[in-house]
């Protein structure tokens, strides 16, 4: 059984994939903050998904990844995939 990804882990991967806006606190309670407000666009989400695939072997469909609007939604996709995988 693979451990579930946490929001802290997700934000770490996102920072590595797409950097971060120094004016945005990515270490606070960001689960329900829209990615746009966090400074991330669909390209950042796709790059994050690629890094998760490399690290965990979990392939996320591009159309699902780009429809996630918040870290909570993105984590749901990742963790649901880990449960199945």
Explain the layout of strands and helices.
Layout (H helix, E strand, L loop, with lengths): L6 H12 L16 H4 L3 H15 L5 H6 L3 H14 L1
What are the salient characteristics of this protein?
85 residues, single chain, mainly alpha, 5 helices
Structure in words:
- The protein is mainly α and 85 residues long.
- The chain is 60% helix and 0% strand.
- It is globular and about 35 Å long.
SS field, number of helical segments: 5
Largest sheet: none
Number of strands: 0
> Which percent band covers the strand fraction?
under 5%
Proportion of helical residues: 55-70%
Terminal Cα span: 9 Å
Give the uncertain stretches in residue-range form: none
Give, in order, the helices and strands.
Answer: HHHHH
Average residue-wise pLDDT: 88
Tell me the Rg in angstroms.
Answer: 12 Å
Give the overall form.
globular
Specify the structural class: mainly alpha
The gist of it:
With 85 residues, the chain is mostly helical.
């Amino acid at each position: 059984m693979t451990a579930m990804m946490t929001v802290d882990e997700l934000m770490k991967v996102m920072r590595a994939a797409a950097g971060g806006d120094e004016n945005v606190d990515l270490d606070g309670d960001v689960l329900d903050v829209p990615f746009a407000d966090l400074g991330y666009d669909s390209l950042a989400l796709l790059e994050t998904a690629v890094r998760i695939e490399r690290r965990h072997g979990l392939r996320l469909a591009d159309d699902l990844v780009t429809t996630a609007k918040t870290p909570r939604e993105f984590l749901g996709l990742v963790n649901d995939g880990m449960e199945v995988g």
